[in-house]
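Weekend entry, working from home. Most of the wet-lab plans are on hold until the incubator is repaired, so I used the time to fold the two sequences that have been sitting in the queue since the last round of cloning. Logging both here for the record. First:
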Amino acid sequence: MAYLEAYEAFINKHKKSRTGEDRRRLEEGHGHAERMFLEQVWWPAIGHFEDLIPEYQVTDYKGGTRYLDFAWVRSPYRICIEIDGYGPHQRDVGRWQYADHLQRQNDLVLDGWIIIRFSYDDVKERPRLCERTLQQVQGKWFGGYDQKYHLVDMERFILHMAIVQEELIPAAVVEELGVSEKTARKWLRSLVEKGLLVPISGNLRLRKYKVNADERLSKYLK
């Protein structure tokens, strides 16, 4: 799918799901810098808009409403992506506004968010630098294997469990995800078929799995 077609579908999808201020923010707040970021950085780096939410609403420590430029939400991580301009408005920000801005970021971090910031100038003049950063973010927190192997959310989460635990048993998947043993085994089998997990015990009924850390996968699992 071409970028413009994907972009229109992405924006229209979120417009249809919003009302009131949320919709107005998406229509008016999603400006030139955000669109340029999507076209020059996000799309070349990621190639789709799944898991990305524009103008994402959060509640601050005072109970007020704030909006993030973008939220990249994929279990178990939430990444805030902000595009920061530099112009008269930014230079004239008062001391209290600046302090409030820092507190807002602190609140997000304390609430478990990962914060990634790009300057408008870098997005415009050095998009490949931003693209590389975005790919590093993907590799560090989501794993570069995601695009290559077309994983669904359940597979991503199970693979993350396997990476963390080193050896994974079906019962752990059942307990962590609240699914049946049949469902857990179905997703484990899918990851084995994709070459991402290998069984390490059992014969007819597999009991343990580990990440397939052969040379072919090593660059995706760093």
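Second, folded right after the first finished:
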Amino acid sequence: MKILITGTAGFIGAALAQRLLDRGDEIVGLDNLNDYYDVRLKEARLARLTSHPGFTDVRASLEDREAMARVFAEHRPQRVVNLAAQAGVRYSLKNPHAYVDSNLVGFMNILEGCRHHGVEHLVYASSSSVYGANTRMPFSVHDNVDHPVSLYAASKKANELMAHTYSHLYGLPTTGLRFFTVYGPWGRPDMALFIFTRNILAGRPIDVYNYGKCRRDFTYIDDIVEGVIRTLDKIPEPNPHWSGEAPDSATSLAPYRLYNIGNHQPVELMRFIEVLEEALGQKAEKNLLPLQPGDVPATYADVDDLMRDVGFQPATPIEEGIPRFVAWYREFYGT
């Protein structure tokens, strides 16, 4: 297939593009290479893709309406995976306008491109952050998620609502994927694993929020990519049993689905740090701090729907994933 992937210089986008190229798909990869974090890392990810004859590199921003219209008109993708977004919960407290531009205006341009060019299936990144103030565990896609605690989370919830509208009005099949704390080689420098590794190796203390009692459903990058590919290959159909009297938020009378992609085995942050220390062969100096605004104490994915519909559930333990990240980090940065 010809597949448009947005955010191909990003962590998940680059890994997904590589896997799809390896299986023979033609990839149109779009990214604006913004400087939210180290552009050199983004360029290094892209360099692994641009040498492939099946990869077309496009430089554009989602919020540029004319540029996005040209991309769809010129390349005519059969399917689209939208991973480009302004990421980060904490950054959304500092620069909220970036989230409106990329995650709302940009996603609107993606929906319009899909609508006007007969795209077979749009898969887009949502986030576990949409669960916000929810406390019932594990988090289910069938639960109400109307109480976000960050603008980033609100923008991702808005994407789900916008996608449903286009599925309902125009019959555009859409699938939203709520990712849970993705980590692994080629990861993002603003994420805890990257920051911890850099500081520990430099002999600097690490900031440990909620006094290390946060629990996260850490999900290895290969599991995320496998989940994306399996859902991309399964075009959603209307749920004939959906009822407006007892609405199910994960399905619809329209061709619309939501899935969690998480390891469904939450790990306490202190245990996560212990495994990292073992992989590095070095102890961390910990600066224990309270929970930050916008953060939640715990995440835990219910992946029953993913398992039922596409036969897959993430299963890589941190005892395997963290050492793989450390090996990559040492090689990439020469430490």
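Plan for Monday: verify the second prediction. The chain is about 40% helix and 15% strand.
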